[in-house]
Amino acid sequence: MKLHRNYIVASIILIMIVGSLALVRYLGNPAPLAFCTPAAGVITFFALLTDRRSGLAGAAGDYNERLRQAIAAAVIVQYLVLVGLVAFFINSVEKLPPITETMLSSFTTVTSVVVAFYFGASAFVDSKAKAKADADKP
Question: How far is Cα 87 from Cα 82, in angstroms, rounded to an integer?
Answer without folding.
Answer: 8
